[in-house]
Each structure stands twice: as C-alpha cells, then as structure tokens.
Amino acid sequence: MSELARLSEGLPAVPRLGIATRGNTSLSDGDVDYALSRGVRYFNWCGKPDGLSRAVAGLGARRKEVVLAAQFKARSAEQAVREMEWMLAHTRSERLEVVTLYYVESAEEWNAITVSGGAWEVLDRYRREGRIGMLGVTSHQRSLAAGWAAEIAPSGRRRLDMLMIRYNAAHTGAERDVFPVTSELRMPVVTFTGLRWRDLLRSTPDDPPDLPPPSAEECYRFCMLHPAVSVALAAPNGRTELEEALRALDGRIECDEAWEERMRAHGQRVHHHAREFW
C-alpha cells in the first residue's frame, strides 16, 4: 500500500490520511499544528472560521508544504467570487490547492452550477489563473458523481480534477459505482465518513463472541487499503479523537486478507443494525 499520494503534478505528495473540520466538530489551532507535526499534509476545511483556518493562516513560509482543500458552497458566479476571495483572504493564501463544490446531490443542482452564470465558470477561471490547483465535487450520489467526473467542458478540458466520496467498511458502494470510473480516468478520490459517524467503532448484536469492534485506526486503514483512494479523511472532534486517527499513519496493522474480511463482515453488520442508514 502506497503511503503517499500525489494528487497532481503541481501539488506536493501527501500522506494518505487527511484531517478535516466540520461544523459539528472542533479542532484548535494547536491540534492542527500537532497533526502537521505528525506528518499530516492534507487538510480539508469546512469553509467556516475555525482552528484549521487559523492554523493555516499562521503557517507563513510553511504554507507551501500543505494541501488545503476547501468545501465550497456557492452555486452562482456572483456568490463564487465573494466566497473565493473571502477564503483566500481569511487563510492568507495566494491559492487554494483543492476546491470541492460541497454536497452536490442532484442533477438539477449540477446543472445550475455548470450553466452560464453558475459557480463552475468562475472556479474554472481561478483554476486557469493558478489560484485553484484542483477543482472537485463532494457528493453522496455515487453514480451522478462518476458521470460528472467524466464530463468534458466546452473548452475541451475535463470539468473536474477529483472527487470526494463517502466510503468505509459499511459504505462500500463506491467500489462498484465510482472507483472503476475514476481509476480509468486516473482521477484522485478523497473519501469521507470513514467511521460511519463512529458506528463502526461499536459492537453489534450479531458480533462473534469475544470479537471487539475495530479501532478508528483500523477503519481509516480500511479506506486507505483501496488503491483507488488517494486520501482518506478523518474528522476528529478534539485531541483524543485526533490521536486515534493519527495512529493510521503509523502503519502498524497487518492488513492481510483475513483482516480485510473481518472489517467487511463488521461493516455489513453495522449496515444491518446501525441507526438510520443513508
């Protein structure tokens, strides 16, 4: 298993575990600095002021070592200009290495983004100017996202450079619907929800006797095991969960076939028993 991923020629190679922030999790500036000291180089920012954005803004000369991915909410061209300029200023960045259109979940939404006057044309301009390194989309809709991955713009260039897709031991549909497409296109994939909202860390009524549930380290290693996955994201809430996630960088687990089978079997049990599954 390769432990480094190069998302594009213009970006530095990064370890295959990334750290993300969300609106309902909290990492301090110090937590982000600690993750950086442990080797993390891919950071996925939720787009709201937080410990991650403050830490990135304070990196100074070290900013070039980090791949900052930003979740982008604008859908119109006018909104996109305002959001992009605010993000650059807030993080004290000359460019954003990755921008992903956040949670695009329908064909209608994608059409609104890509028509004249939509956000895509503005982001494509920033990409051509070098102020965006890679342009992607974040979605739960696997088949739609796979289709968007292959879409060619009128300019002849592919609309997207990467996808961000849900994938874990209980959500393995990307192996069927997304990874064959992105592998053929040689397109990077970043995965999220590696713990299935921590449900994968819990036992189920059907677990074999004396078999403990997997650790966070194992759950992230499962995601990193698939060769189509460039970076598996963790979204820890605080230092304790961050420490749990960072163990996946150590490579201490023997990810053999028996281990993978146990992870998949546990994922199937979680799929059957866990709270609402979507």
Q: Which range does the strand content fall in? A: 15-25%
Structural class: alpha/beta
Number of strands: 10
Mean pLDDT reading: 95
Taking the sheet with the most strands, its summary is: 8 strands, parallel, barrel
Rg of Cα set? 18 Å
How many H/I helical runs? 11
List SSEs in N-to-C order.
EEEHEHEHEHHEHEHHEHEHH
Q: List low-confidence stretches.
A: none
**What is the straight-line distance between the termini?**
29 Å
What general form does the structure show?
globular
User: Helical content, roughly?
Assistant: 25-40%
> Order of strands across the widest beta sheet?
3-4-5-6-7-8-9-10
Walk me through this protein's architecture:
This protein has helices at residues 29-37, 51-57, 77-90, 107-114, 119-129, 142-149, 174-177, 179-185, 216-225, 239-246, 257-273, and strands spanning 4-5, 14-15, 17-20, 42-45, 67-72, 96-101, 132-139, 162-166, 189-192, 231-234. It has 278 residues and is an alpha/beta fold. The two termini are 29 Å apart.
List keywords for this structure.
alpha/beta, eight-stranded parallel β-barrel, two-stranded antiparallel ribbon, 16% strand, globular
Write a brief caption for the model.
With 278 residues, the chain is α/β, with parallel strands linked by helices.
